[in-house]
Amino acid sequence: MSQQTRLLQTDNASLHVAAALLQAGQLVAIPTETVYGLGADATSDQACAGIYTAKGRPSHNPLISHFPHATAALAEARDHFPLRRLAEQLARQFWPGPLTMVVPRHPQSNICQRASAGLPTIAVRVPAPPATRQLLALVGRPIAAPSANRSGRISPLCAQDVQAELQGRLAAIVDGGPAPVGVESTIIDLSGDHPLLLRPGFITPADLEEACATYGGLAHPAPAASASDKGTLTAPGQLTSHYAPTLPVVLGGQVNLQGTLEALLLFGPDEPDGLGVHAGLQGVDQQGRPWWNLSPKADRAQACSRLYAGLRWLDVEGRRLGCGLMRAPALNVLDPDKTGLGLVLADRLRRAAAPRGTTPTSR
Ligand code: TXA
Ligand code: MG
User: Fold this and answer.
1) Distance between Cα 279 and ligand 2 center (Å)
2) What's the rounded Cα separation, in Å, for the pair 302 and 280?
3) Residue 320 among known ligand-binding residues
4) Per-position DSSP letters for 298-341, written without gaps between them
5) Annotated binding residue 155
6) Which residues form a coiled coil (predicted)?
7) Domains identified in the chain and CATH numbers
8) 169 lines ligand 1 (CB under 6 A)
């Protein structure tokens, strides 16, 4: 069912309107430093059900709850659990910021079953933009917010991306300008005896290493693509196709110089063999290939901030210019050490390139 979607700014009066809509159980897209979220009252099963419907999201995939400050977030966690001290330390170190913690749910937690998909754990985070935290404080309840895209598609980085994905399926979008980080938060599971990296993000394993050292270090689970098929394991990083453009995505390999025209996702100053010069950030080359350089100076933070915009742009331009696929020829140079930002870039690109349609997608 289609509804009118209002576009709101971040002035006081607009934030009050957004807060009232959220309190009334409506869906409102909110800006965060990572990507835009599709927000709903995390204490209301009915409001959270709306998120799953609007996104077409599988109901066994739980949501992250957002808070204005660490005290409110950690109040939803059990008072005592083995990694509670680590959670408090990471909150001091990284919040507000792009880190999500999975913690055991407090017996009196207000977060509804829908938001946590019936799990004994909850995912919590404090986003960075001051206007968003002001909105969260005005609402006075946690806000559940997955990325504001249709399930399995590219996460939105600005209000216009949200409109393109979900216009008519939500009450309002708060326009906080472009999301500076550009990739989803890092998710760390603190519900067991040892910290576990569930999803790589802008906060890297290298950033987390010191805090985690006294708790046995940060473990990385091996991706198990079949886990979500059973509908049991809800951890991200375990689902295959995601962040998918409509064109097929191919990682690495040689650019096809004669046959199928390819849209190119480049990284760094080096040109793929046999191609002309692609100077600058984006363009269409003489052979009619659209190309997008994630970072001509090979800066991985810049590459994160330009990744989803690049996938969206290459998808649209590639289709318009008759490309048969999108290729990222330089994938091998992105992720040399597995502990820095290359990890998140390679993770998202592998998901964009994963076979589609065989596995339920998430997020
Ligand atoms: O940067 C972000 O995290 C953005 C912004 C909007 O905050 N949100 C986001 O949400 O990326 P979403 O729904 O697209 O991804 C959240 C992931 C899901 O894959 C879900 O499986 C996982 O968090 N998750 C949520 N609760 C969990 C839990 N209790 N245990 C394990 N994983 C959980
Ligand atoms: Mg998502």
Assistant:
1) 32
2) 14
3) no
4) --HHHHHHHHHHHHHHHHHHHHHTT-SEEEETTHHHH-SSSSST
5) yes
6) none
7) 6-213 (3.90.870.10), 249-362 (no CATH)
8) no
